[in-house]
C-alpha cells in the first residue's frame, strides 16, 4: 500500500489558518458526520458522562451534539476563528482564558463548562494540560496531519487516552498518486502499525 507522492507533502499551520480566514473549509460538515451517528454505541460503549476529545476540531457540530447528551467535550484547533464561529453558530456563551503552559494559547469554554476548546497546536497539548479521555472522535485529524508527523500525532493521542477509551477514526481511501492531499491517504496497514 503505497502512499505515492504524498509521503513528503507538508501543509503549514498558516495554510490551515488561511483556509479558515478565506472560508475555504470544504472539510467542515454542517450536519455532523453520519459515521458518528452510526457508530455512537462503539464510542460510548454503554457509558455516560464521558470526556470526549476532538483533535483538530474546527467547528464540528458533533461537539454540541455530544455535550447535549451529557458528555464533556474537549477540542483543539489552531484557528481561533473556527472556535469562535462554533460558539456563535450554536449561541453558546463562553469565556476565554490563557493557557499558562503554552505561550500565546487560549482556552475557550462554555460558561456551563461542558465544552472546552483549546486554541493552539495539538502538539503543544499534553495530558497534564487537558487530562485524559474516555473517547476520541478523529474525523479529519489523522488524515490532515502531515504524513511525516503521523507517528508524533498518534503517540500524543495514545498518551491522552484512558485505559478503556474508544477511538473512532475516519479515513479516506483513494489513489494517492492522483490527489496530493489533504486529506491524506493512510493505508490500513499503517494505521495498525501506528496504533499497535
Describe the structure.
30% of the residues lie in helices and 20% in strands. It is globular and about 45 Å long. β6 (133-138), α7 and β7 form a beta-alpha-beta unit. The protein has helices spanning 13-22, 34-38, 40-44, 62-68, 80-89, 127-130, 150-159, 188-195; strands spanning 51-54, 72-77, 94-98, 106-110, 115-119, 133-138, 161-169. It has eight helices and seven strands. The chain starts with 12 loop residues before the first helix and ends with a helix. Strands 3-4-5-2-1-6-7 form a seven-stranded mixed sheet, sandwiched between helices. The protein has 196 residues and is an alpha/beta fold.
Core attributes:
alpha/beta, 30% helix, globular, seven-stranded mixed beta sheet, 196 residues
Task: Offer a quick outline of the entry.
The chain has helices at about 15-20, 35-40, 40-45, 60-70, 80-90, 125-130, 150-160, 190-195, and strands at about 50-55, 70-75, 95-100, 105-110, 115-120, 135-140, 160-170.
* Structure summary, number of beta strands: 7
Our measurement of the CA-to-CA distance between the termini, rounded to an integer number of angstroms, reads 18 Å
Q: Would you identify the regions where 5 or more consecutive residues have pLDDT less than 50?
A: none
User: Can you list the strand order of the major beta sheet?
Assistant: 3-4-5-2-1-6-7
Q: Structural class of the secondary structure composition?
A: alpha/beta
Strand content: 15-25%
Q: Mean pLDDT, as a whole number?
A: 91
The tally of helices reads 8
Largest sheet, if any?
Answer: 7 strands, mixed
Helix content: 25-40%
Order of helices and strands: HHHEHEHEEEHEHEH
Net shape: globular
Computed CA radius of gyration, to the nearest angstrom = 16 Å
